[in-house]
Amino acid sequence: MGNEVTLQLTTLYAFMVVLARISGALVFVPIPSLSGSPEPVRIALVLTLTLALYPVWPALHATPGAGMLAGWLISEAAMGITIGLVVAFLAEAFGLFGQMIALHTGHSFASTVDPTTQADAGMFVVMAQSMAGLLFFATGMHRQIVRIFARSLETQPPGSFAISGVTVDGIIRLSSTIFSTGLRLAFPVIGLLVMIDVSLALLGRINSHLQLNSMAFPAKIVSALLILATTAAVFPRVYQDYAVRLFRALPDLIR
After folding, report:
1. Residues of 157-174 as b/e, b for ≥16 C-beta within 10 angstroms?
2. What's the confidence (pLDDT) of residue 116?
3. Kindly report the CA angle at 159 between 163 and 153, in degrees rounded to 5?
4. pTM for this prediction
5. pLDDT for 212
6. Residues of the chain with confidence (pLDDT) below 50
7. What is the gyration radius of the CA atoms in the chain, in angstroms?
């Protein structure tokens, strides 16, 4: 006599709840080329992460009604979107850094193909966002995301999350850190370029016969590339410190 595999209805509902939470987050989590990947790949990733969290699925002791289940799914998707939005600040800070240095180094018109959107984008913006995507895996942030979901499934029962004024205010406060982090990364480059401009202006003031306008543009380009190569070793530490700051604030946002 063959064995029969039975699946309880509460287990299926728990799967749907976790699936909604994971799906909401992966809309915003900065996984390289995820948005440009085929739909089956993204669906397989969501299903894999959902099944991997099976040991911490919520235990449903009763079958919820249709209205309650719909409310749970909306609440879980909102929680996932909140988590993914906060994690996306990591990539946005580096993207802002790329915008800042591109404007001051004269590369604002230099464009390349964005591998995520397949559209033209600024060279430094694409470089900075690609660097953020690589650091996302190199610093182990993908493992931290899985731990955050596992912890939230243990502490937050289905349907308990609701967007409140505290959550919105916390997200707005965290979004302000995008500018401060991007500026922190761009300050060495901007400071060096300001010093170059001031030096060339003083030389031109001392000797008006010197034709320094033709030298300013290549000097700024070469100097910016050199300072970027020098300070690139600091980027992982800044990225990790910023990630720790965001992840420490997440429990208060999804409580």
Report:
1. ebbebeeeeebeebbeeb
2. 59
3. 100
4. 0.80
5. 66
6. 1, 5
7. 24
Task: Please check whether residue 17 is in contact with residue 73, taking contact to mean a CB–CB distance below 8 angstroms.
Answer: yes
Is the separation of the CB atoms in 121 and 114 below 8 Å?
Answer: yes
Side chain identity, residue 34: L
Domain limits, the chain: 9-102+113-253
Q: Which residue has the tokens 């909140």?
A: 82
Rounded-to-integer distance, Cα 142 and Cα 126, Å: 21
pLDDT at 1: 44
pLDDT in tens, 195-212: 887 887 787 777 766 666
**Predicted local confidence at residue 25, as pLDDT:** 85
Which residues 6+ apart lie within 8 Å of 26 measured at CB?
A: 34, 42, 45, 46, 49, 80, 84
Q: Judge whether 186 and 97 are in contact, CB under 8 Å.
A: yes
41, 219, 223 from 190: Cα distances, Å: 40, 14, 11
Nearest CA to 42 among 20, 57, 21, 27?
27
- Residue-wise pLDDT for 165-184, tens only, equals 888 888 888 888 999 998 88
Half-sphere exposure of 102 (CA within 13 A, CB side): 21
